[in-house]
Write a structure and sequence with these properties.
disordered N terminus, 404 residues, 3-stranded antiparallel β-sheet, 8-stranded mixed β-sheet, single chain, alpha/beta, 10 helices
């Protein structure tokens, strides 16, 4: 007779197996008994806690709870970015900047009536309204409605230099026609119809408005301004802030910004572009236009020189898609940042907190935003736009094409 040794079991093996199975059954029985007893004790303790709580509440109802006037104290959560469903938070508190006033007047640029010249610096005026602010809020809410609960949506509006550089006297006297940017941002942050998280960078910029956070000859903010907004984002989302002191500062003097043509005095006050390289290894994949093949590059263009293109030091200027990678981070975090050119000076710092930063310029990107996030495993999306863009209908409509 032929035996199949794969199935053959001798008597001793069967006895050992049966004994082992009996022991396992006993262990399972004891475990179930322990769980049952633990559950009973937990339920009894819960009942006792409920009874004690009811007694305490009854005593407070009779004797006023020990508070003056019989009012219950309310505790507000610490400074974190809460959603629009709770608008009573620091995202809606705006600290007015302390702007020095030498009592001199500037003048409207003869080349551009939307620019004011003050102390050899050009300031882009703001004409946004409540209705345009609400339209932008609706736009961001529309994406959140499509994105669903699996994607956290942040929105950060960046005020421009006028808000922090033009003395209030000139606006109050009607010499400068520029609308209140804090009120406009507040309208946006309080008008969401979905669970969008507002990020308030206004106060951080206001606290540092005496520093070099905006250019003199350009409508953008500087690398330092972008850093303070990054700091605000980290603090309001509970993340560690990258310390600039451990980074390597680079400077490119002689920047002739986008507003140079507005007045001859600006040639006496040219700008310097500052950027900071990091104490960790990074690289980026750049896609210039929709449909192009991505290619590897660096986060900063360190070969930037003086002239009119120096702002291109930040992520090499605008493009459809720019994906930053931190080679030394393994936390699995990814974020998509939807921006125009203001975002360029902001996004490099995010490499300290995210393995991948997907920088999307809504003016050139043509894919569906939600599909892109799903495909790439992105669960955080941040809209970063300057206040003029956020109040310009054609720009807002272009953002909508990302998810229409």
């Amino acid at each position: 007779m032929d035996y199949d040794f794969d199935l053959y079991e001798d008597k001793a093996y069967i006895e050992r197996r049966n004994a082992r199975r009996a022991l396992e059954r006993e262990k399972r029985r004891r475990k179930k008994l322990l769980i049952r007893r633990t559950t009973i004790v937990a339920v009894m303790l819960l009942i006792v806690v409920l009874i004690v709580t009811l007694i305490v509440l009854g005593v407070k109802a009779v004797f006023g709870g020990g508070n003056k006037g019989g009012k219950t104290e309310e505790t507000q959560a610490p400074t974190v970015a809460m959603s629009s469903t709770n608008t009573n938070n620091n995202a809606l508190v705006f600290n007015e900047p302390d702007i020095p006033d030498d009592k001199t007047d500037g003048y409207t640029s003869s080349a551009n009536s939307g620019v004011y010249i003050y102390n050899k610096a050009a300031y882009e005026l703001f004409a946004g309204s409540e209705s345009s602010a609400k339209d932008y809020a609706d736009c961001i809410s529309e994406f959140k409605a499509q994105a669903g609960d699996k994607i956290t949506v942040y929105n950060m509006i960046i005020p421009n230099h006028t808000e922090f550089g033009i003395p209030k006297r000139l606006i109050q006297e009607g010499k400068v026609q520029s609308n209140n940017q804090a009120e406009n941002i507040k309208t946006i942050y309080s008008s969401y119809t979905q669970d969008v998280v507002p990020i308030n960078c206004y106060n951080e910029l206001s606290a540092h408005n005496s520093e070099y956070i905006y250019f003199n000859t350009d409508h953008h903010w500087t690398g330092l301004g972008g850093y303070y907004a990054y700091k605000a984002f980290c603090e309001q989302t509970g993340q560690k802030v990258l310390d600039l002191a451990i980074c390597n500062e680079k400077q490119v003097p002689g920047y002739e910004g986008s507003l140079m043509y507005c007045d001859g005095s600006l040639y006496e006050n040219l700008d310097t572009v500052h950027f900071w390289t990091f104490p960790y290894s990074t690289y980026a994949m750049r896609t210039d236009s929709a449909g192009d093949e991505p290619y590897e590059t660096t986060v900063y263009y360190e070969g930037a020189t003086s002239g009119s293109y120096t702002y291109g030091a930040f992520i090499w200027g605008d493009c459809a898609l720019f994906v930053e990678h931190n080679n030394e981070l393994s936390n699995g975090k990814k974020i998509a940042v939807i921006k125009e050119s203001y975002g360029n000076a902001f996004v490099p710092y995010l490499t300290a907190n995210y393995e991948e930063v997907h920088v999307i310029d809504f003016r050139y990107f043509e894919d569906n935003l939600k599909d892109y996030c799903t495909t790439n495993g992105i669960e955080e999306v941040m809209f970063v736009n300057n206040i003029v863009a956020a109040n310009t209908a054609i720009q807002v409509d272009r953002i909508r094409t990302l998810f229409d």
